[in-house]
Amino acid sequence: MRFGLYAGASSALAAGCIIRACLERPNFYSTCVYIAQSNACLFILTNLALLALYSVTLGLQKAFYGPLRLVEVEQLWEKAWFA
Fold it and tell me: For each of the chain's 83 residues, which pLDDT tens digit applies?
């Protein structure tokens, strides 16, 4: 529930950031420059990228391992930390 709400809010913020940049700038290059130089846009888009990475990781974990107990999840994270 909380993850879905967080994902929805992050996606809406990222879409708003990109739409605002597209409406304010006349062409694609200046839009990209604006996004790259705006700290708020970079923060929002980095947040979205980390959210996507977490979602892919969670999906792969569920696809390959199925439902895991809490102890097994902790062991996976410990092994991934040292890998």
Answer: 898 999 999 999 999 999 999 999 999 999 999 999 999 999 999 999 999 999 998 899 889 888 889 998 888 888 887 76
pTM of the model: 0.77
69: left (phi over 0), alpha (psi -120 to 50) or beta: beta
Chain-centre distance of CA 29, in angstroms?
24
Helix (H) or strand (E) holding 68: none
SS3 (DSSP) at 79: helix
The whole-angstrom separation of Cα 42 and Cα 58 is 24
Q: What are the tokens at 61?
A: 């974990």
